[in-house]
# Entry
Amino acid sequence: MSGRRVFALFRRVVEEIRRDRPSLALLFIAPILVTGLVTFILRESQTPIVHAVVVDRAGPAGAAVEGAIGDALQSQGSTVAQAPDESAARSEIEDGHASIAIVLPADFGSAGPRMITVITNGLDPAGEADQITSVQKALLAVTGELAGVSLPTISHTTIYGVPSKDPITTFAPAIVGFFAYFFVYLLTGVSFLRERTGGTLERLLATPVSRGEIVAGYTLGFGLFAMIQVALLMVWVLGTVHVPAMGPLPGFAVGLGVAMAGSPVVAFLVVVLLAVGAVSLGIFLSTFARTELQVIQFIPLVLVPQFLLSGVLFPVSTLPSVLKPLVPLMPLNYAVDGLRQVFIRGAGLDAGVLQVDVVVLAAIAALFAAIASLTIRREVA
Amino acid sequence: MMPAAVPDEEGGAKRPPAIRAVGLQKVFGSVRAVDGMDFELAPGRIYGLLGPNGSGKTTLIRLLTGMTRSTKGTAEVLGVTMPSRANLSRIGYMTQSDGIYPALTVAENAQFFGAMYGVTARDAWMDAVALVDLADRHASVAGTLSGGMRRRLSLACALIHRPEVLFLDEPTVGIDPLLRVQFWAHFRALVDTGTTIVVSSHVMDEADRCDELLFVRSGKVIARGTGRELRARAGTDDLEQAFLHYGGDGVTQ
# Structure
């Protein structure tokens, strides 16, 4: 081993990276930015504002508790209303007037193990878990005040889906959306960069092809692979194939087997719309990259914030209020919401909430296609 | 091949120029890549843009093909002011880099660029491939070809739509002498069918294959004429010396 050669290699690597300003900036600034954002979200995340409806079936025995819970919750800026019965409370949640229902059972006052039922929507499991925690805290405060009353257990039901201990139910819709977006961006960004740096774009632009035609052709081409990718991903996520035990081999299952309330076709449509937007995003960002490494370096700037602010990991409802205005700007947000509507609620294309997501995703895809075609430089009128 | 192959007839009746530059200028920051060029090029001839690297040849070709917009002045090809997307179907442009898709085969590259020019007939792109002697390699993946073959494929891709005006940016760089002779034979054959060709080069020994030369230096056309004329005016029989003569004296046209 020649020390001189190793040193020459070392020096060349250092010099090369030192002269690649964008890489340098991203190498040092991106980790600070990303860790800062994550820390900020974790530290400054808000106590969720609970809009509770209380159904008191315990009569006078529950009234004291009900009042105390109300006081405890209201002190956090939450609202507490009453509902005559459970079905009224459920429709309050479905209409979006309430975020959680607290049902005090008829035998609430009696001795023995007592149980309070809380009902949530079920579409945003992580955010709803935070709400339940708030209610639990309020209960804890209440039972502290009412000496001798033991803490009741909480039973959680949801309007859509089943509150599950399987953590993937929460994440599956979001993750399907995110990774489709991620890989389509990466594939298009690198391919289009190759077109720019390989001299074929110059060649292409010397033909009568229009920029719109280029974007459309790229969208169709990468759209095809995105569709195959998403289809495979959906089969993998939703399906389970049980392989029986054979001889000494134990039986096992292939596929994640995530429960899906709605139509896989509708979910597929939502992801494909998102992916089409990612094609244009890749073309657009390749303008600012000179090397494939730089295409990858846009990930912490463009994809990580979307990941953090679209409810994939952290529920949107508890994001720091400074960051909340950014949420509607994230294309991924609409896909995650849409996919949760389909996966958990079973929404079809006739559901208004899903229509909004689909229309916004289509509009974003169209907007980015227009921007992308403008960034394919050719000075042709 | 003989010098000044085409006799100095201008085609009798005055034909409109194939290419026209009027006060053409392109400025990048503080660099005047093309610094006021005025010329008219009659159709059906081979014009050589001769000058050292960085003299503005590529920028001039990019202005004439509409790949970039002039800072001042106009560039016209076949009577149409560039940039014009519609006019590109009558123009062929072989870029300095090969500009072919290495993962596609020879035939697929030709077919693709044919489609971009709106030419879908198989004969058209197979003819172009045959013209550059790649017919027997039509199924080979472009990335596996030798440098010279890639250059030939690149030329073929600029010919499929039978352009009336053909711009060739350093077409013979990195090409062996034998292939160079073949290339010039192709160019001559194209001109005989009425095509106008503009070839840029910094290799002086290619100059005599052109019907007319434009010496380019520092973004300006410093001299123009047949190789013989330019040498005679400079009082030398070496084109390189002639170039220095015009460059040194700052003579324009």
User: Anything to note?
Assistant: Chain A touches chain B through 16 residues (CB under 8 Å). Chain A has a mean pLDDT of 83. Residues 51-158 of chain A form a domain with the abc type-2 transporter like fold fold (CATH 3.40.1710.10). Strands of chain A lie at 51-56, 79-82, 100-104, 115-120, 153-158, 241-243, 252-254.
